[in-house]
Design brief:
By secondary structure, the protein is of the alpha/beta class. It has a single domain, classed as Glutaredoxin. The protein contains six helices and seven strands; from the N terminus they run E-E-H-E-H-H-E-H-E-H-E-E-H. Strands 2-1-5-4-3-6-7 form a seven-stranded mixed sheet. Strand 1 and strand 2 form a beta hairpin. It starts with 12 loop residues before the first strand and ends with a helix.
Length: 149
Amino acid sequence: MALKIGTKAPDFTLSSTGSKKISLSKDFSGKALIIYFYPRDFTPGCTAEACEFRDKFEDFRDLSIPILGISKDNIESHERFKKTYKLPYDLLSDTSGKVCQAYDALIPLIKIPKRISYLLNEDHEIVAAFSEFFEAKKHIENMLKSIKK
């Protein structure tokens, strides 16, 4: 299950690619954005999803919607993943899983991130969520449709 539409997205500060820390409330204050959670760098489904967000990046940029990817992988893995696939957006490391848990993005028992995408409005309320583990590319399609509504 995803967090409910209309609820305030939990705030966080995480390490990001590019040797920086990103805070939802500070770095994206007053901005709509997409946050997507994914299981692991370099796996087939996660690579397909990341590359699809990359390939549609200009569509999101033209709509002034930044993208953040979050998994439990460490920053070193994220840096390699970002460089290998030329990802134009930041990947955030949640090695503790606390942010994943706050967003209901952890698979119970095995504690790996689910594949779930959230669209947040300018007030960081959840306006759309899509959770489908085996349909990585549909996350991007769903987020674009939700933005254009």
